[in-house]
Write a structure and sequence with these properties.
By secondary structure, the protein is α/β, with parallel strands linked by helices. It has 17 helices and 13 strands.
């Protein structure tokens, strides 16, 4: 059995913590916790074959695009305990016309919106909720801009746990809230931003014995890191030059880096891709820190963007996101809501739907190529984090220049009249 350790993610501390600890930060230095294993490189050369062998499916844990890679997350000796909804196994889709318009040699999107609840959160939630069950937890809780709550509520329902969600009032898409409600979660509206809701939740979790499943929970990152493996597998283990993704609370970039570094450690990655975090201009404290050459993050007190999923001013994972960029020679960018809108439209014109926050990755790539920070010959993968149907209000609000909706009299002539000027 592989050694599993929970420890402080700050290498300067690296203190070991009991796996069953009820806290989410290091009792020594306050840093975030992470899981580590003694992954053995000798056996790793066989893993791609083992993983491929599970593709036809069978048990839930072999069909899952997270648990299929369980050699990299050896957390549960019996994989059949996994609380799975068939997450992962998401498509990698080439978008040559977008590549040409941006000016890079190769461009593909890894669409994590095609997950059971429509976002990348499912990759982490399957692991986190499986751990909650192992611990005998009764209630799971999160603060959310919407996707984490939808995902948590689904996996909690699957496992028979109760789910509590804190969301900023009036700042979450109706579709995401509907998901959490449909799965039977209690939704509490508190505060005007994610940061405020998250701070409130953190203040009460221990006292109320809730199990917090936000991305400060190290088990979330274990599931989310598998996107690195599935991506590499889909590319025949040929690493891209850059992987670009939107950043909010910065758990996803931390997870992706962890996956890549572990693949590197066991010899399954020949070259490290550079990670690129794109934030919305009005909620870009990490970009300001990184591009300004600073080592400490100054929170954005009043984060603002229409891409509500990433409207976060005080990202909890910034120290590990900084290490992720240091270790992958990463880059950051900030994009306006207008730039997000045109990127989203460009993807839609290629038949790729996603929510606004996801389109930030393309908007950021375009700026970095235009500025020469990403070279024209680059081979790039964009991570699309959420499904198009996550924010249908946004689509309605941004229809200008589209054929849109016309109303017609219910007659052949009436419909004909409505088509005038379009056909
Ligand atoms: N894209 C989407 C669609 C998201 O929902 C989020 C985060 C991100 C990107 C940013 O990922 O936080 O790991 O940097 N959504 C969280 C939520 C905060 O509550 O659903 P991150």
């Amino acid at each position: 059995m592989t050694r599993v350790e929970l420890r402080c993610s700050d290498p300067a501390c690296a203190r070991r913590v009991d796996r069953d600890t009820a806290t989410y930060s290091c009792p020594g230095c306050g840093g975030l916790l992470e899981l580590s294993y003694d992954l053995s490189p000798e056996r790793a050369q066989d893993w791609p074959g083992v993983w491929r062998g599970r593709l036809p499916g069978g048990a839930d844990h072999d069909r899952s695009g997270v648990w299929r890679f369980r050699e990299l997350l050896p957390l549960f000796p019996d994989p059949s305990v996994a609380v799975s909804l068939g997450e992962g196994r998401t498509p990698l889709i080439e978008v040559p016309s977008v590549a040409a318009s941006v000016g890079v040699a190769e461009l593909a999107v890894k669409h994590l919106g095609v997950n059971p609840t429509g976002s990348f959160k499912d990759l982490g939630m399957t692991v986190c909720v499986t751990e909650a069950v192992r611990r005998g937890v009764k209630v799971v809780a999160c603060a959310s801009t919407g996707n984490t709550s939808a995902s948590m509520a689904a996996y909690a329902a699957r496992a028979g746990l109760r789910a509590l969600v804190l969301v900023p009032r009036g700042a979450v898409s109706g579709a995401k809230l509907a998901q959490a409600l449909d799965f039977g979660a209690l939704v509490v509206e508190a505060g005007s931003s994610f940061d405020e809701a998250f701070a409130l939740l953190r203040a009460i979790v221990e006292q109320l014995g809730l199990y917090l499943v936000n991305s400060v929970n190290p088990f979330r990152l274990e599931g989310q890191k598998t996107v690195a493996v599935e991506l590499l597998e889909q590319r025949g283990w040929r690493p891209p030059d850059y992987v670009v993704l939107p950043g909010g609370n910065l758990g996803n970039v931390s997870a992706l880096a962890k996956g890549l570094l572990e693949l590197w450690e066991v010899g399954l990655l020949s070259r490290m891709p550079r990670l690129v975090v794109v934030q919305a201009e009005g909620a870009s404290p990490f970009h300001r820190m990184w591009s300004g050459g600073r080592r400490e993050l100054t929170p954005e007190l009043e984060p603002a963007t229409r891409a509500t999923a990433i409207r976060i001013g005080n990202p909890a994972n910034w120290p590990r996101a900084r290490r992720a960029l240091e270790r992958t020679e990463g880059l950051t960018e900030a994009v306006s809501d207008l730039e997000i809108e045109s990127a989203k439209r460009e993807l839609a014109d290629s038949g790729i739907g996603c929510e606004p926050a996801s389109a930030a990755s393309l908007a950021g790539l375009r700026k970095l190529v235009a500025r020469g920070q990403i070279e024209a010959g680059a081979d790039v993968v964009l991570i699309l984090t959420g499904h198009q149907l996550k924010d249908t209000d946004y689509v309605g609000e941004h229809l200008s220049g589209r054929p849109g909706i016309r109303s017609a009299e219910p007659s052949v002539e009436g419909v004909g009249a409505a088509l005038r000027g379009w056909l």
